Amino acid sequence: MTVVGLITEYNPFHFGHKYHLEESIKKTKADYSIAIMSGSFLQRGEPSFIDKWTKAKMAIDNGVDLVLELPFIFSTQSAELFAYGGIKLLDSLNIVDYVSFGSEIGDLEPLNTLASILAREPDFYKEKLKSNLSLGLSYSVSRSNALHDYINDYYPNNTYNYEEILNKSNNILGIEYLKSLININSTIKPVTIKRSGKDYNDLNLSNDFASATGIRNSIISNGLPSIKDLVPFETYYHLEKYLKKYNKFNLIENYNQILLYLIRTMDIEKLQCLLDIEPGLENRIVQQGNKNNDIKEIINNIVTKRYPRTRIQRLFIHLLNQLDKDTFWELYNIYPSYIRVLGARKNGLALINKIKKNSSLPIITKFADYKHFKNNSLEKILRFDKKATDIFFIGLESSMTMSNMDYYNSPYIK
Questions:
Q1: What 3-state DSSP class applies to 268?
Q2: How far apart are CA 260 and CA 269, in angstroms?
Q3: 267 and 215 fall within a common domain
Q4: Cα dist. 110→65, 81, 155, 174 in Å?
Q5: Is the domain of 243 the same as that of 264?
Q6: Same structural domain for residues 194 and 100?
Q7: Which of 306, 330, 354 is at the close of a domain?
Q8: How far is 377 from 303, CA to CA, in rounded Å?
């Protein structure tokens, strides 16, 4: 039995995702696929466009064998921590042979070179990183510059354009996956599939693998029918069902009033306790929160070269979910503590049985069953998943009462 793992968001599942799944299976000759998928909130600091059970249904109906939830504490982090959360969970299953990720370059060699430098953190690299940060550049830009300088000095015969490699979001995430594999000494073998179609943020639509961002923007601007030919039939079917049930897709601006309340009433000391906050940034957040009533405008005015948009958005999502840095690092040290199933094909049930035999982690299928494990570490991390789900549904502003939805939704089994 050969198993390939994928770390995903599927927001929503589109043709590019289907291509990546099929090419991953072909390249690894895998019998089964497992997707570690973000749930209610995402890596870029946004709520999921649709709920996690709808995303799981899309993935299963498009061919993924088993969908497991990436816990909230990692799904809304920087590329480094997001990648670690996904890789660590895949590794803990003790049945995964390969992890496959998309990249713009489609070549493991240069990505492995960069990952090994980041894993070792040689003195020259650290000095260059510190120097760039002192110029007021963001961490990601400073790191890219430091890596570029290190390559120029220590790899004189290099034939790759590392500056261009480090300028692409999927390459960067791929490097983090590889670094995490190195750091935890995993036996999982990496493969990369060259990304086809639009870049992640490309808003232009075409039948050639439109981006998730472009698809979401078209739905918001032009209605759901506008993307009917840009996603698999199964995806469109579940989007229609979702919209009929909830009447609204989720966006960060749906939390405008809640975020205004938090920014304007929270003690500044609590803002200082958020992960990724820097001295002075909390004052910038409060100042802009008092000047503007629109969360998107507040974010626009906080963003600088040093503070990228995704970092600011993640801070606000952590604020919403009351995740501070001390709590995160406490949970980091006890992670992973469970395996949460969101969906499975019938042949994916064989994967669950194999995980039970090979992994020491408890498997949660029915949410209420977590209490039977009497596991304090499990409950601490799972509490954030439940809170994230409750907050997700608040954003939909429905007349229906949608609290405790984790208890009422079972994994999708096909």
A1: helix
A2: 17
A3: no
A4: 31, 21, 11, 11
A5: no
A6: yes
A7: 330
A8: 35
**Tokens linked to 215:** 């698809």
pLDDT confidence of residue 206: 56
Q: Is the pLDDT of residue 199 over 80?
A: no
| DSSP reduced 3-state for 287 | helix
String of DSSP letters for 95-157: ---EEEEEESS--HHHHHHHHHHHHH--HHHHHHHHHHHTTT--HHHHHHHHHHHHHHHH-TT
49 and 64 within one domain: yes
Q: Domain containing 279: what range?
A: 252-330
In a shared domain, residues 304 and 390: no
Cα–Cα distances (Å) from 26 to 60, 171, 349, in that order, read 18, 21, 21
Contacts of 96 (CB under 8 A, 6+ apart): 3, 4, 5, 34, 90, 188
What is the domain count for the chain?
3
245 shares a domain with 370 = yes
Structure tokens given for 158: 């290099």
Side chain identity at 173, as an amino acid letter? Answer: L
Write out the two tokens for 267. Answer: 């003690």
Tell me, yes or no, whether 295 and 281 share the same domain: yes
Q: Give the whole-angstrom CA distance, residue 26 versus residue 97.
A: 14
pTM above 0.90, yes or no: yes
Q: Are 151 and 162 in contact (CB under 8 A)?
A: yes
> 312, 330, 348: which is the final residue of a domain?
330
pLDDT in tens, 53-74: 999 999 999 999 999 999 999 9
Q: Does 269 share its domain with 352?
A: no
pLDDT-based confidence at residue 201 (cuts at 50, 70, 90): low
